[in-house]
Design a protein that fits this description.
Elements: H1 5-10, H2 19-29, H3 39-42, H4 45-59, E1 64-66, E2 69-71, H5 75-92, H6 94-97
Antiparallel strand pairs: 1-2
Helix pairs in contact: 2-4, 4-5
Length: 110
């Protein structure tokens, strides 16, 4: 049976991601969660950015215990998720990563 974009995003990690979080990310990125996940949709800019948003969300998610099951991340895992998300953003949204602040001395006297 074919899986949906929702199942594909949930499959990134076993952490119990709230549906409202998935809905908000999908809405912002233009991903139809109920659509069948195809090779084309999984390679789309929208899906990749939604995945990056989700990875960044997971990097800051709290460690929890739910129904006798514990979900936690090490600092290394959190850093890896942040790094992967930033890599996707750097490729697909390079203008968002550009800094406009320049530091340093700009005069002719100290």
């Amino acid at each position: 049976m074919a899986k949906s974009n929702l199942e594909a995003l949930k499959g990134i990690n076993a952490y119990p991601i709230p549906m409202r979080t998935l809905d908000e990310i999908a809405e912002r990125r233009g991903v139809n969660l109920m659509a069948t996940a195809t090779q084309e949709s999984l390679k789309s800019k929208e899906y990749k950015l939604a995945k990056a948003d989700l990875l960044l969300w997971l990097a800051f998610a709290p460690n929890i215990s739910q129904g006798g099951q514990s979900y936690s991340f090490t600092d290394e895992q959190r850093n890896d998720m942040k790094r992967e998300a930033r890599g996707i953003y750097a490729i697909l949204e390079p203008e968002a990563n550009a800094t406009t602040v320049t530091y340093g001395y700009k005069g002719d006297r100290l």
